[in-house]
Each structure stands twice: as structure tokens, then as C-alpha cells.
Amino acid sequence: MSSPAPLLAAVEARARREGFALDPRQRVVLEHLARAATHALAGRPARGVYLFGPAGRGKSWLADALFAALADGGATRVHFHGFFDDLHRRIQMHRGEPDATNRALDDVCGASRLVFFDELHVHDPGDARLLTRLIERLVERGCTLVATSNYAPRELLPDPVWHHLFIPGIALIETHLDVLRLDGAVDYRTRASVRSSGFRAGVWSTAEPPRIETAPTPLSVRDRVFPVTFADAPSLTATFAQLCDAPVAAVEYRHWSHTYAHWTITGVPPWDEVGPAARQRFVNLIDVLADADVHLDVHASVDLDVFLERAVGRPDAFRMASRLHLLRRG
């Protein structure tokens, strides 16, 4: 592919099919992304792109639409939670081998010349080390990285106790990627039309859920077992306590999202009545289900506006809020 024009046309056509047109800011970003992708897949040197800004401005949509337009392959897409799940499994596969982490990174990214990394955020020091090594490895291989995030590079790993651990990663981003901000007054997710399937078909309700009179269903992921209220593909029903008070990780949510296309979560309490660990698990759960386009019905003790008002200012709550606004009110 010698020109970005076909990619631009394909992405704009997808927008028209979905009933909207790109705004001027999105168009500028798309042109930048398309040029980078065209150069990378043609084997020409290409700087990567780090695209950040508030939730709901179209960052992930643009990256996903561009990736889908690359019909001839040569690109890999990874999501934050899926990346760490795959990487840790690959590191275990290569344990005992020289340079196991690099081998695992190469497995995850394949032979691609272009890697899309969606929803990049860093709150954990261990994640910071692995993300730094990922960027280093892609630079070593001459790969082009396109990353989306809600955070400016220097806002990643914001905890002042740990921030210094990601300074090398921030330096790599600012040296090898063009940093672009996509903002604007409109959160487009709040204007999304109702859909008959997928995440947007879900409902946030304060009504009592239907009673299920069976014993909890045990679900297993590798050697771990978790009880949920009911599970029979394609439906899964679980309480907030089962999914978020228990030590469930994003890897389990991701595994179940591949099997169960319709989730019902019951007993969701007000945001300020649960601890930090349960809050972060709920944020991770919404990330995973939205990314997998799973139909989600929520039965909560307060309406969505009250729930989100109490979450303002918490880590990653703005991203969760943008996604939950896609749900209909029951």
C-alpha cells in the first residue's frame, strides 16, 4: 500500500455505515494514523503514534476502524488486559530459556510491523516494567506502535511513590512516538444510539432481578474456581460480590467474556460503599465487557447518575462512566 487514501476512504465509509461523520479533530488524527500505518506496512521507517484524551472522543474507534481496514494483515491489535494475560502465560511457557521476556513479547506481537495497543494505562509498578520492555522491544525490531490512552505520557503511573519506575517508558514514548491529543466537548458515547445487540443493548436498572433458585455454578479458569449465581452459555448471572469483592482478575473476566455473550450483574452497591480493590475490579470488568461487546444488564441499588456522581475523581472512573452511559436506563 503506497498511499493512505484507501485507508482514509475505508474508515470514513465505516463511519457513514454507523450513521455519523468524523469531526475535524478526528479527521486530522485519522490522517496521521493512516500515514503511519501506510509507511510501516510498506517497510518504510515510521514513527509511532500515542493518541490520548478524554473518554468517548473516538480514540479506540479510530484505531479499531483503521486496524479493520488493513485487510492484507501485517498488523496486530492487543488490549491492555489481554496483553498482560497473554504475556504472563508466554513468559511461563518460555521459563528457563534465555531472554524469556523478549521471547514472550515476540509471541504476543508476532511478526507484525505495526502493533495497535488499546487503552494503555499504568497503575502497577510491575506493569510499568513490562510495558517499558514492550516499547523497547518494538523499537529494537523496527515496529511501529499505535497506542490509545486516556492519559498523557507523563501522567502514566501517577502514584508519586512509583512514578519514577515508568520514567524510562515515558522517555521511549516521547522519543519514538508522535504524541497527539484528541479532545473536544462531546463524549460521543453519551450520544450513542440504542442497539439490539452487544454492550449497548444492555440496561442499568434499579429493579429487583429475577430470582434464580439454583445452587451457585462453579466456573474455573486454569486452577482457580469461582462461584457465580448461574452460568449456561450464552448467559452468565453473578452478584457484584462474586465478581468484585472476591479476588477475581481481569484474566478471568476476559476468559468468561469469550464464552458468555450476555451478562447480568446483580446487587451492585453505591460506589462509595465498597473498597478500592472492588472498585478497580469493577472498572476492569467494564473495560473487558465493553471491549468484547458483551450484552450487559446491571441491577443496582442506585440509579446510574448517582452511582457515577459518587465515582468522580477515582482512578479510571471517567472511562468507566463513558462506557456505562452506553447502557439504557431501566
Structure description:
With 330 residues, the chain is α/β, with parallel strands linked by helices. The protein has two domains: 5-188, Rossmann fold (3-Layer(aba) Sandwich), CATH 3.40.50; 192-329, 3-Layer(aba) Sandwich (Rossmann fold), CATH 3.40.50. The chain is 42% helix and 19% strand. The protein has twelve helices and 13 strands. β9 (230-232) and β10 form a beta hairpin. The longest helix is centred in the N-terminal third of the chain and has 18 residues, at 24-41. The protein is globular and about 60 Å long. The N and C termini lie far apart (48 Å). This is ATPase. InterPro entries: AAA+_ATPase (IPR003593), ATPase_AFG1-like (IPR005654), P-loop_NTPase (IPR027417). Residues 45-183 form the AAA+ ATPase domain. One of its GO terms (cellular component) is cytoplasm.
